[in-house]
Amino acid sequence: MLKVKVFGYRGKFNSTVRVEQELVRQGCELVNENPDLLIELCGLFSDAQTFYKTCSNKPIRLYNLLDVMNRTPNFYDQAKLDYEEAEITTTISNVVKKDIQKKFQTNKDIHVIGFPIRDIQYSNYGCKGVPFCYVGRISDPNKRVGLIKPTLERLNFNHEMMVFVGSEKPPFGMWAENLSDPELSEMYNCADFVFLPSQKEGLGLTAMETIIGGGHPLLCDDNPLVKELGLSAFSAAPHPVALGMLVNKIQKDYPKYRKIIDELRPKFQKQFSIEKVVKSMLELYNNYIKENLNYEKKN
Questions:
Q1: Which of 18 and 159 is assigned the larger pLDDT?
Q2: Is residue 111 situated within a structural domain?
Q3: Among 53, 80, 206, 280, which has the minimal tally of Cβ within 10 Å of its Cβ?
Q4: What is this structure's pTM?
Q5: Are residues 33 and 91 in the same domain?
C-alpha cells in the first residue's frame, strides 16, 4: 500500500481534503511520517519542506503549481525552489505550463493534469433564475470586470440585478460573497450567462464549471484558453458591443447552444474530476519509480 502525505490549503474550499479522500479510495494510506509520496498542492508551504527534512526515507515529491500570475516576489522564489527540488512537477493547463517555463527559464518536464478546486455538480433544474452572474476576483486587471456593466447596459439589463460571487465586494449589483461548493453548484445551475471576460486564465475553471452547471460562459476571444478548451462558440471580442451581440446570438438560437453545452459537459466532468487528477498523480509516481531503477525505496 502506497503511503502518502499531502500538504495544501485547508480553508473553506478544501480541495486538499478531497484529494486525500480520493487517495484513500484509490488504495493509498495517509501517513504523518516517512511517506513514499509527498504531494504539495501549490503555495508557500514551508511546512512541506520542513516535513521532508524529517523523513528518513527521502520520499518522492510531487509539486502541483496552479499558476504564476500576479504573485509576490517571495512566492516566485519559493515556488521556483519547490519546482526545482520536486522529482515530479504538475500543473493545470498547457497555458500555465508555458507560463511556468517562461517565468522560471527552464525546460524541466511539467505534466498537465488539470485540477478541480470546487466540487460542481449538474442538477438539471430547467429554470435559469439568475440571468447574469460573475464568479471570481474583481480587482485583478486580467479579469476585465469593467466590460460587464456596459455590456449589460447595451442589453437593456438592469446592472444592479447582476450577481457577483467571490471574496471582493463588487462596484454594483448583488454580492453573494463566497459560497460553499453546494451553494456554488446551485448558482451555476441557476445561472443563464456567466461572464468570464479575462484576457488570460490559468485553467478557465469558471468556464468549465459554468458548462458543468448548464450555463453559457461569456468569454473573450483573445483568451488562449478559449481555443484550448474548445469554447470558441461562447467567445467574442473584448468589447461590450461584441459581448452583447454574443448574448443576442445565443438567445436567438438557444437550442443550438444548449446542445453544445450538453456535449461538452461530460467531457469536462471526466477530464477534470478529482478521480482523474489523483489517478494521474499516482501514475506519474509509478512511472517515475519504473524509470529510475537506481532509486532505492526504503520502507
A1: 159
A2: yes
A3: 53
A4: 0.76
A5: yes
